[in-house]
Each structure stands twice: as structure tokens, then as C-alpha cells.
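Per reviewer request, we include the raw input and output of the structure prediction for the construct analysed in the revised manuscript.
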Amino acid sequence: MFLWSWGANSHGQLGQNLVNEQLDKPTKIDCTDLFQSISEIVCGGGHSLLLDGEGKLFSCGWNHRKQLGDEQEAHQFHRVWPLSGINFSKIACGWDFSCAVSDDQFLFVWGSNSHGQLGLPKSHFKESMKPIRLQVNAKSVSMGLRHTAIVNSKGEVWITGCGKYGQLGLGEEILSADRFEKVSKVGKISHIACGQNHTLAWSSEEYALYVWGDNKHGQLLLSPEKYKKIFDPQKIDIDVRQDVKKLLSGWTNALLWLGNGKILTWGRNNYGQLGTSKEANFGKLVNVSLPDDRQIKDIAIGSEHTICLAADNTLWAWGWNEHANTGTGSGDAVFHPTLVPIDTGDNSLIMRVYAGGGHNFVVTSKPVKEEENGASDCEGKVPNEI
């Protein structure tokens, strides 16, 4: 197994043991002896979290609000809370705060709590370095700029943090919360995604999208001329009668990856976030296809860019590119899916892609027969889900 990263690196968030403005192309990370497999990677404004196949947590990057779960900024992935004995199953990052869900579905939070986004009293916790366990059941979780949303095992949405733009979905009278509050006007939710100042929730039972928060750029699939902010969840009926693999949100754009392989995007498009022409598509769905109708194997979204893995082992990207976010070799915004050169130097397969903020990670693995004949850089195998 091999781990690669590129994009913004001003805080060492790429895990390359160096700090510079950016890395222009996918670059291999020396991860020897750190972890044997990777389950998930998430990215914040300038930090990264990695969950290995054993449920152990690692972090690197920006740490001004203790979002790494440690005292010092780190430019390589290092173990967080190694003596806890707790295994985690899911992780998430906001701008400068972090969380993890344990195997028994308890939520642990740390980092900035300036707006109550950790679900802790602001008067007592401006920030927390040590992960704090909340008495909150979390099956899935997403974090935005200053708010956090979870879905519990019942399919209920609970939310905390800043609600200035309606992103809490608790009505116009509740613009801030420092404990998790139930969002009542939604159905049974299967997927949750927080944007910069908005929240999206998908119900697999209803084949419906629920939206609330800022709609300045049509990120709620509503006309921004009519609806600037939505303080109560609105149900959006879209013509999707199939499973959703992923619901993802950038700062002001979003996408659905459908069971039939299609990608639907919407929201802001000033940097090509929608993977289409420069024309504005506020409040409308855009169907994005890879060249030659390549099938999609995985997809990830950053603050304003998208990384996509095709089934033929090619990597594609589009969107904001100021810090080489897309890895396509140009500093200009990328308005259509464009090939990302990655020189693995062997027959390695790209297994998963991860993105957030302005940076990215990919996991590659040698074909099984080759791995059986020799250890990988991380001396282990890729878990089944990768």
C-alpha cells in the first residue's frame, strides 16, 4: 500500500514532513511503520486526520486551535491519543475542529469550540486539545466551517454550532447552539453533508434531499434570487429513484454520486466546481461525465474542487486550483474533468481518493500477486473496503 498527497501545504497538512506553499503533483508519503492499512482520510482547513484499518487515529498539519488532538503542530501523521484503547470507525474535520466516532457510536470532539461547534458550552470550552466523549449517538457525522451535524442510528439529525445563515435548521430564532439539538423537520436521513454555511441531508426512504442554510450560490437547489437563506429544512424532490453512494458538499457547491454511477452537481461554479462550463448554474442540477463515459470508482470533494477516480485506474479533477488543488499541472481554475498525472512507477492500482480544504490524498496498492511477493511501503495489505 502507498499513500500520496498534493495541494496546499502551508501547515504541513500533506503529511510529507515539510512545510511549503503547495505540492503541484501527487507525491508519495513515507508511511513506513505508521499504519498497515487505511480506512479513511479527512481534511480540514489546514489539517488532516487519518483512520487506519484497526481504528487508530492519526493527524498532521495546522494546530492553532488544537485540532490535531495534540499540543504541537505536526508535519507527518502521528498517532492521536495512543493510550486510550478506543477504536474509531468514522472521522470528520471542520475548518479548525475535529471529531471521531467510536466503534460503539459515541462521538468524540476536539479543536475549536468558538461557536459551540463541538457541542460543548462555549463559556467553559473555547477549544479542547483532548478528545472529549459526548453522550451522543452518532452513526455518521459531517462538519462545516463552524457547525457540526450528525445522524444517529434512528436516522435523526442533530446539530450544533453557528446558525447565522440558517445552517442549523432550527428556525430563525435559534442562530447559535453549543449543544446538539434535534432537527425536527426532516424525514429519516441516511446521508449528511455540511457546507461552509449550509447543510444537506438525503433520505434513502423518500428519495428526497432536505436542505437548509445559506443559498447565495444556489447550493440548496433553490433560486438564490428568491431564497437567500433557509432557516427551516426544505424538502427538495429531485428525479432520483435509486441508491445514493455519496452526498458530498464543498463550501458552496455539492454533489450526489448515484448508484448507477452518475454524478449530479449543483451550486457555485466560479472556479469550475460543477465540472462544467463557466456559465452559472445556480439552483440547477448538472450531470457531470468523465471523458469517454468512464465509469466512476470513487469521488471526493474539497472546499471548491473535486477529485474523481475512474474504473480504468485514471485520476480526474476539476475546480479551484490556486494551490495546485487539482494536480492537473496548471494554476488556472479547471472547468471540466481533467486528467491528473500520477507516476506510480509500477503497476499499482489507485484504490481510494480523499479531499478537503485545498489538499488531497490517494491510496494505491500493487496487484495482489505482487504484494504477496514483498512488503509494501507500509508493510501491510489494503483492507477489503478499499
